[in-house]
Amino acid sequence: xxxxxxxxxxxxDGLGFHLGPDGLNGNNGNILDVHTQSAIxxxxxxxxxxxxxxxxxxxxxxxxxxxxxxxxSLNLTVNAQLPVNEFYGPQTLQAVKSFQKVYGLPVTxxxxxxxxxRIDQEVRNRTTASA
Length: 131
Description:
Elements: H1 5-14, H2 34-46, H3 57-78, H4 90-102, H5 113-130
């Protein structure tokens, strides 16, 4: 599955990448504007991908892996019962909010890098405790 640009914008927004002054609300659709290019560049830089500002296959693949890992980890930590796929939809948003509430983080529904690191730590804690 390859993301459409509008689907990828939802992922970028859900992961906390800035899509412009109005966020996803002001930047939806399949238009590659300057805000989207900037968010893609930031994503690519953060994950040590070639920084092109375009939704290329390496960027698409990395985002899909991040999303599947996030959903799997939310299922383990807050029993979210999410389908493990590559989309940041309403169920993932609610699961992130649940995680944030349970672990005393600001409840935004945005899985920033800090939130994802905390989720990963909680998964490690659970797998270490059960081993």
